[in-house]
Amino acid sequence: MKENETLKQIVLKTLEESVNSLISSFPEVEKEAFKIKIEYSRDEKFGDYSTSFALENSKLLKRNPIQVSKELVEILQKRTDLFEKVDFTPPGFVNFRISTSFLLNYIETSVLSGNYFPKVDLPLKINLEFVSANPTGPLNIVSARAAANGDTMASLLKAIGHNVDKEFYINDYGNQVFC
Hints:
There is one protein chain. This protein has 179 residues and is of the alpha+beta class. The chain has two domains: 7-101, Arginyl tRNA synthetase N-terminal domain (Gyrase A, domain 2, 2-Layer Sandwich), CATH 3.30.1360.70; 119-178, no CATH class. It is built from six helices and six strands; from the N terminus they run H-E-E-H-H-E-E-H-E-H-E-H. It has helices at residues 7-23, 53-61, 65-76, 100-113, 141-159, 175-178, and strands at 39-40, 49-51, 83-89, 93-98, 125-130, 163-168. Helix 1 crosses helix 3 (65-76) and helix 2 packs across helix 3. It is elongated and about 75 Å long. The termini are far apart. Pfam families: Arg_tRNA_synt_N. Keywords: Ligase.
């Protein structure tokens, strides 16, 4: 594991190595022709990440996507250090669940190296509005908690690379309460 390497990059690198192993038995096919990508799973029941490699590349291999998926799953299942579970879903998706031990090791390594938060690939500009405490009345626990939560959220978003503007509303005399 390299410094500042995200989980997604680690999984992608492992997938690329597995695909290279799979296609080594196809010398007539150029490795550069293959599209290899992973995505976050849309549904938690399918795992943490998934790939549609078999669907997108089965024609190049001249094989059924389900057959390609099964062969890829066999190779990936050998990586028990990284994956808790690897399976396929028809018509040709391969799903990955990161192992808890790998995740804990990843977090420990990140903390010890000082890289607590890997940076996002595409930083967003975020306008975070929080706390609308009534200046004419006492500060209550809800407003205090909202201030702490909002500021913490802004700090976390900045730490992973987003551009965050914080807006803290003051001089809102609470007229909306009377409406």
